[in-house]
Amino acid sequence: MKLRNKAAVLLLLALAALLLVLLSLRAGRAEPRMLPARPSSAPRRHRATAAPAKAAPGTQRRRRLRPRPEAGRRSAASLEKLARRPGDLSRSFQNVLPPELWIQLAVVACGSRLEETLVMLKSAVLFSHRKILFHIFTEEALKPEFDKQLREWPDSYTKKFEHRIYPITFSVGNPQEWKKLFKPCAAQRLFLPVILKDVDSLLYVDTDVLFLRPVDDIWKLLRHFNSTQLAAMAPEHEIPKIGWYSRFARHPFYGAAGLNSGVMLMNLTRIRSTQFKNSMMPTDLAWEDMLYPLYQKYKNAITWGDQDLLNIIFYFNPECLYVFPCHWNYRPDHCMYGSNCKEAEREGVSVLHGNRGVYHEDKQPTFRALYEAIRDFPFQDNLFQSMYYPLQLKFLETVHTLCGRIPQVFLKQIEKTMKRVYEKHVIIRVGPDRRH
Ligand SMILES: *[C@@H]1O[C@H](CO)[C@@H](O)[C@H](O)[C@H]1NC(C)=O
Ligand SMILES: *[C@@H]1O[C@H](CO)[C@@H](O)[C@H](O)[C@H]1NC(C)=O
Questions:
Q1: C-alpha to C-alpha distance for 52 and 299, rounded to whole angstroms
Q2: What number is the average pLDDT over the span 276-293?
Q3: Which of 122, 163, 307, 330 lies at a C-alpha separation of 20 to 30 Å from 252?
Q4: Is residue 239's pLDDT more than 80?
Q5: Mean pLDDT estimate for the chain
Q6: Where is this region: Disordered (predicted)?
Q7: 283 pocket-lining for ligand 2 (C-beta < 6 Å)
């Protein structure tokens, strides 16, 4: 059994290597300076010993530089190289892109969530195309550290986003009571439509979320809303029989298995202008006016804080919700009892959600491997060499777990994304040369 799994993973690695060879042939036609094609046996050997077949001089120099200097300390040469990087060509485009076209990403980070949040933001910046505005809600004590660390990222990445840091505030009711609801600060999310008055739409994510493909792709779903939809989430579970809400909830919840709010798209304009049906008043209520009565009514019945309140709201207002498939909010629940997220099997995981602290312990090594690969990726490096190969090696060690048995599900999107980033890189670098 174990052997067969290992064989399957190796086959997968061989396929990935084949893909790279094809890619290199394709790009090689356009330009000889290319990513080295990796022999199919390479992943089994240690990375450092696998000599690239036809590494360009630049690539070799880069390899010798490892371990990479930390972001921020960069040589003049690397700065110059950076200036020729793909992101920089589109910089002028980014600068003229009006702020209303930027992606708006919100997160609420309190307590020990600083590193996790920065890794999430890093994953957003690494793979996205469009400029992003980060709205970071955090405690006073964490603010300077967020500022400092975000400014230390290399220019080519800091150009791709701007960030705003906000204190935790609650506009209605008793602030202390809201703060105690669920984990520290989580109820903050319910107030975003009220606080971010100038923002039309927003992607809210928990701190333990990682983007494995451009944020642009999930952002596009906002345009798929029909005229009554104003928020989008994924189901809490794919199989109601073993889901939490269907078995334990003592309050109304959306659909057959409830909603998970860890990844949530919101059209704030619509949330602010809609009157919501509810169980507290005979009349419909505006979002802002509904929150506190809702909380008062259900506070003794709710377990998961603001997520439960959202489930109650959309139970009474189902026409307001757009349900997106589970690959946009992929959790251990989707594989730890066997694979049950069919869309992820087809599409690959698009957004990973390592809830229950799985990035920081050993129970779900696949989730941890992805977290560490993104956390440890040196910004300037080649994505395949410094993220994808190490990740594949780490995945070989996870085949004994239920989630580790389906590595292709975890790797499909990230591989596609890297291919796209890489192709963009080649095309942009080749473009000007060709005109001579
Ligand atoms: C949000 O809804 C408003 C009002 O219907 C609409 O004008 C706006 O374009 C929507 N935003 C997005 C990103 O779809
Ligand atoms: C929008 O979609 C939701 C969910 O599918 C549905 O309940 C609602 O009736 C739709 N609204 C309109 C105006 O078609």
A1: 60
A2: 94
A3: 330
A4: yes
A5: 81
A6: 34-79
A7: no
Q: What is the mean predicted confidence (pLDDT) over 234-238? A: 96
Confidence of residue 350 (pLDDT cuts 50, 70, 90): very high
Q: Which of 105, 219, 269 to mutate to test the pocket of ligand 1 (most atoms within 8 A of CB)?
A: 269
Q: Is the dihedral of CA 69, 71, 75, 78 positive or negative?
A: positive
Give the 3-state secondary structure of 244-256. Answer: HHHHHCCCCCCCC
Range scoring the smallest mean pLDDT among 9-13, 186-190, 358-362:
9-13
The mean pLDDT of 431-436, rounded to a whole number, is 46
Q: For ligand 1, what atom is nearest to the CA of residue 223?
A: 14
> Whose structure tokens read 């300077």?
144
Q: Which of 215, 227, 270 to mutate to test the pocket of ligand 1 (most atoms within 8 A of CB)?
A: 270
DSSP state string for 80-98: HHHHTSHHHHTHHHHHHS-
Q: Is the CB of 228 under 6 A from ligand 2?
A: yes
Residue 329 has pLDDT above 90, yes or no: yes
Q: Amino acid identity of 301? A: A
**CA 271/CA 53 separation, integer angstroms:** 56
Report the DSSP pairing between strands 201-205 and 259-267: antiparallel
Question: What CA–CA distance (Å, rounded) separates 235 from 225?
Answer: 17
Q: What spacing in Å lies between the alpha carbon of 269 and ligand 1's midpoint?
A: 7
Is the CB of 300 inside a 6 Å radius of any atom of ligand 2?
Answer: no
Give the type of residue at 399. V
3-state SS class at 302: coil
Q: What is the pLDDT of residue 83?
A: 36
Helices (H), 31-168: 57-64, 76-83, 86-89, 91-96, 114-127, 143-151, 155-158
Q: Does the pLDDT of residue 123 top 70, yes or no?
A: yes
7-to-13, 14, 414 alpha-carbon distances in Å: 10, 10, 22
Q: Yes or no: say if 395 and 366 are a contact pair by the CB < 8 Å rule.
A: yes
Residue 151 structure tokens: 């400014």
In degrees, to the nearest 5, what angle opens at C-alpha 434 toward C-alphas 431 and 436?
A: 125
Per DSSP, the residues of 324-338 read PPGGGSB-GGGTBTB
Residue 435 has pLDDT above 50, yes or no: no
Please tell me whether residue 51 adopts helix, strand or coil conformation: coil
d(CA 106, CA 131): 14
Q: Which ligand is nearest to the CA of 202?
A: 1
Cβ of 318 closer than 6 Å to ligand 2, yes or no, is yes
